[in-house]
Automatic annotation (TrEMBL):
Protein's recorded name: Lipoprotein
Keywords: Ion channel, Ion transport, Lipoprotein, Membrane, Transmembrane, Transmembrane helix, Transport
SUPFAM superfamilies: NAD(P)-binding Rossmann-fold domains (SSF51735), TrkA C-terminal domain-like (SSF116726)
Domain CASTOR/POLLUX/SYM8 ion channel conserved, first and last residues per copy: 270-364
GO biological process, alphabetically ordered: monoatomic ion transmembrane transport; potassium ion transport
PANTHER family for the chain: ION CHANNEL POLLUX-RELATED
Organism: Catellatospora citrea
Database matches in Pfam families: Castor_Poll_mid (PF06241), Slo-like_RCK (PF22614)
Membrane-spanning residues: 26-48, 84-108
Membrane topology: Multi-pass membrane protein
Annotated ranges, domain RCK N-terminal: 124-220
Main location group: membrane
A single GO cellular-component term on record: endomembrane system
Amino acid sequence: MARKVSLRARLRYWFDNTMSRGTTGLIGWLAVASFGLVLVVTVAIEIADPEKSGADPLRLLWRTFVTTFSLSAPTDEGWAVMPFWFVLALGGIFVASALIGLLTSGINRRLEQLRKGRSAVLERDHTVVLGWSDQIYTVITEMVEANASRRRAAVVVLAEQDKVTMEDRVQHRIGATGRTRLIFRTGSPLDLKDLEMVNLNEARSIIVLAPDGATAEDADAYVLKTLLAINKGPAFRGRPHHVVAAVRDSRNRAVAKLAGGDAIVLDGDDIGARLIVQTARQSKLSVVYHDLFDFGGDEIYMTVEPTLVGRPFAQALLAYKQCCPLGLLLADGKTVLNPPPGTVISPGDRIVLLARDDSMITLATAPFTVDDTAIVHGVRGPAAPESTLILGWNRRAARIVEQLDVYVAAGSTVDVVTDRADANPAVARLAPRLRQLVIRSKAGDTRDRGVLETLDVASYHNVIVLSDDDLDALTADSRVLVTLLHLRDILAGRGPGSIVSEMRDDRDRALAQLTKADDFVVSEQLVSLLMTQISENRHLESVFADLFDADGAEIYIRPASYYLRAGATITFATVVASAARRGEVAIGYRVSESGDGHGVVLNPDKEQVMPAIDRVIVLSSS
């Protein structure tokens, strides 16, 4: 049988429920107690001194109410009612103290909730970053640069970090953010309720970051689940979202694209491997890529130019004064970099070009002067076998060797020196798949001077120093720096043709430059730059895919003697014309002696007379 509940228990239960509602319930009961006190004292005074107060009971009620919260008793009353005023003053002290305490507690509780970053974001046309890693600093820095010309711009970060901690870290690493407002929220990108906080349906773009310290498998699983939550979540399903993410294992890219629907998913390890291989074979190429990928220098734009419709692409090359056309974005959405010079620009095609700012995309007012006497057509000899030394090993190493096999001539060799136990089995699996390369491995600690001295490093065409991904970034980069210092001392100005080191933390780049290595590739930073660029313009995905494809157009840094007569005084327009006759697009040049350390100049003014250059930077299909 059901137990009978008394009226007192029901009232007590109701009272407890109202009190548990927090500040609102407590203030409500305090108001009831205050009104009861005022009413009781007013009636008592009315009874004790009816002659003085009976004329106007409402005025007396008002006096008692004011006395309650002024914490003072009137002094002009008789002794008969003075005890009641005294009781009212004591009650007022209790009421005022309790009210102040409740308000203070409520405000503190509200501030604590705000500090936790759990309130909803009402921004529109904003950029959302889901997840937290060291890539966040590169992404935010680039977004601040990209939003410099926007009146209202916001970047919203949702991560499983304390809101105040995130704000402090970003402030310490980045500093002022100009017109871009940074909004941080604490929550999990895998939780559908937390995702609703950042207003994904109104966002301009969404960038998904994998957490630091996770294995490739765990990091990709995190990205996959986040994409699934965005694409399949009830609150987001069917909405168009511009999502950009990256996976570390190529095998997970296909399933990540299935989970993300229309999301753009980059293969981080594949991009990093291609960048290292291309940079190892062409000194200072990493500087070119960095300039192309960030928002600080020249950027890639797409523009419609009606006056060039019906004309061959070769004419577009010399149509702009301070822009370098790279190719065409066709009407069907396909990008073609460095198309054949005779390719006719059709209606609906957009020109893909390199410019410092979109305000500088204007046609030249007069034709450029081209010095035909300075143009030569140097013939490159047949590719010779190359020897490459790889010091260290990580999960990208096998991909690096496979990419190197695509570029080098038959009979080339690659030697791997590392103390990691998983390297030898991986090399054994690689060897049968290589067509041009002969691969050999040797066990040894690359930080050991004695080991390096036995390798005859100067005899190699290229040296690649890899960062160990089994270690944390600080330790891994420190080992790379030790190896580079030994190499610098051993070589003392002698070969090899190029030394490229891979770094994990971009802050270590400045220290690495002291070792005088040729190039430094920070793979995760470059992938972050790519993701940020694509988040602003999704068409850039096909542009970058063509740049990284061995069968597409790629960037080469070639001797100036292939294009120009030695000692000629020319403008960059002549360089463009010379490259166009070879079916290439000239986008810059390199000076051997330069105060900035690399001498790379992209997208120069076509009318300015160039200094003595030793290399021309071109976009070529071979």
